[in-house]
């Protein structure tokens, strides 16, 4: 029997592995903007208008945004795995109109992950669920820019695995003021025997994220956030406030927002791009970085973050790998309630 030529194809040979997703996206964008992605598991996803400018100020297209998410997926996907996603769609990019969408529509692509989740008004509705690249890219295909994920995961939707304080500065507050308030929160955490991970919001603020032990309820998470926020605002009223009304806040104060800890509330995920002109990214920090004089959160963008991904992802893992002690959480909540009673 003659030897098989090197150019022959065996019917038993596995199908060729597709090119990397970023390479496919670049090729589709260069070839008119419409095409079909193929994933290593055989799944496919139709994508369109990849050449549409999404961030004109920095030259980032819809396809470029997808390529960013494909590059950071190894760090981003574990963070949103199992979490229902809420979409804010920008079909024409940051310069166009935007609208919210929660359900995935009548016929979501077969490659995407969808689950029925309980909703506020009763009953259950479908939601996209994070954790795989096809679903993430489908949200961008629909025009979503930020990745907004629940604090809990499918299978335990009543049990958040983190609690968040969102430091939101008033217009005249500098980022140095935000960093100072974050330092006050860190001191309160240390005093209580608690710890947190830290990331930029992707705007002018900071997210302080406390990992929670299994079984924590949303009520407990909300009470913990409220106790910490109220303690910091009471001790440093010149810099921090918990006043919800804008008119009640000073022009240089930082709002310590503890109100985002309820089922169905979402947070811009770590490594999420935000819908602002320069394509800023919500990026993990160390406390030492935050305290550095002249630190600029605007340095973290869709153009700069992928090259630093390994180090940044390590910061995030380290901050969240150890849940806070249930006993310390209970003491903090009890202390907050006692302070409220004595006001």
Describe this structure in words.
With 343 residues, the protein is of the alpha+beta class. The chain is built from eight helices and 16 strands. The strands form five sheets. It has a six-stranded mixed sheet with strand order 13-14-10-12-11-16, with helices on both faces. A four-stranded antiparallel sheet has the order 6-5-9-15, with no helix packed on it. Strand 1 and strand 2 form a beta hairpin.
List the helices and strands and how they pair.
Layout: H1 21-30, E1 35-38, E2 44-47, E3 53-55, E4 60-61, H2 62-80, E5 85-89, E6 99-101, E7 114-118, E8 124-128, H3 133-141, E9 148-150, E10 162-169, H4 175-192, E11 197-200, E12 206-211, H5 218-235, E13 240-241, E14 254-257, E15 266-268, E16 284-285, H6 287-291, H7 309-320, H8 326-341
Parallel strand pairs: 13-14
Antiparallel strand pairs: 1-2, 3-4, 5-6, 5-9, 7-8, 9-15, 10-12, 10-14, 11-12, 11-16
Helix pairs in contact: 1-2, 2-3, 4-5, 5-8
Can you summarize this structure?
With 343 residues, the protein is α+β, with helices and mostly antiparallel strands. It has helices at 21-30, 62-80, 133-141, 175-192, 218-235, 287-291, 309-320, 326-341, and strands at residues 35-38, 44-47, 53-55, 60-61, 85-89, 99-101, 114-118, 124-128, 148-150, 162-169, 197-200, 206-211, 240-241, 254-257, 266-268, 284-285. The chain folds into two domains: 21-150, Alpha-Beta Complex (DNA primase, PRIM domain); 162-341, DNA primase, PRIM domain (Alpha-Beta Complex), CATH 3.90.920.
């Amino acid at each position: 029997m003659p030897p098989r030529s090197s150019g022959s194809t065996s019917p038993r040979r596995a199908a060729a592995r597709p090119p990397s997703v970023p390479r496919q996206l670049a090729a589709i964008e260069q070839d008119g903007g419409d095409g079909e992605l193929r994933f290593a598991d055989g799944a496919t996803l139709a994508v369109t208008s990849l050449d549409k400018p999404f961030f004109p100020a920095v030259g980032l297209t819809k396809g470029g945004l997808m390529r960013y998410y494909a590059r950071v997926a190894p760090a981003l996907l574990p963070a949103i795995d199992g979490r229902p996603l809420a979409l804010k769609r920008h079909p024409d990019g940051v310069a166009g109109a935007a609208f919210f969408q929660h359900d995935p529509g009548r016929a979501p692509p077969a490659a995407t992950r969808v689950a029925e989740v309980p909703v506020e008004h009763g009953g259950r509705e479908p939601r996209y669920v994070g954790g795989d690249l096809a679903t993430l890219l489908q949200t961008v295909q629909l025009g979503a820019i930020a990745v907004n994920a629940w604090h809990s995961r499918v299978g335990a939707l009543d049990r958040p695995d983190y609690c968040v304080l969102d430091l939101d500065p008033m217009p005249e507050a500098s980022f140095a003021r935000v960093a100072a308030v974050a330092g006050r929160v860190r001191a309160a955490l240390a005093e209580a025997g608690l710890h947190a991970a830290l990331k930029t919001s992707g705007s002018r603020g900071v997210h302080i994220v406390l990992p929670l032990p299994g079984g924590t309820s949303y009520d407990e998470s909300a009470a913990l956030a409220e106790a910490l926020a109220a303690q910091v605002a009471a001790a440093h009223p010149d810099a921090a406030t918990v006043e919800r009304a804008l008119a009640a806040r000073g022009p240089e104060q930082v709002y310590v927002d503890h109100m985002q800890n309820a089922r169905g509330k979402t947070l811009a995920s770590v490594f999420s791009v935000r819908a602002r002109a320069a394509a800023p990214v919500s990026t993990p920090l160390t406390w030492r970085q935050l305290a550095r004089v002249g630190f600029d959160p605007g340095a973290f963008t869709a153009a700069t973050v992928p090259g630093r991904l390994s180090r940044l992802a390590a910061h995030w893992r380290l901050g969240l790998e150890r849940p806070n002690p249930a006993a310390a959480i209970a003491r903090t909540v009890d202390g907050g309630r006692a302070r409220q009673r004595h006001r």
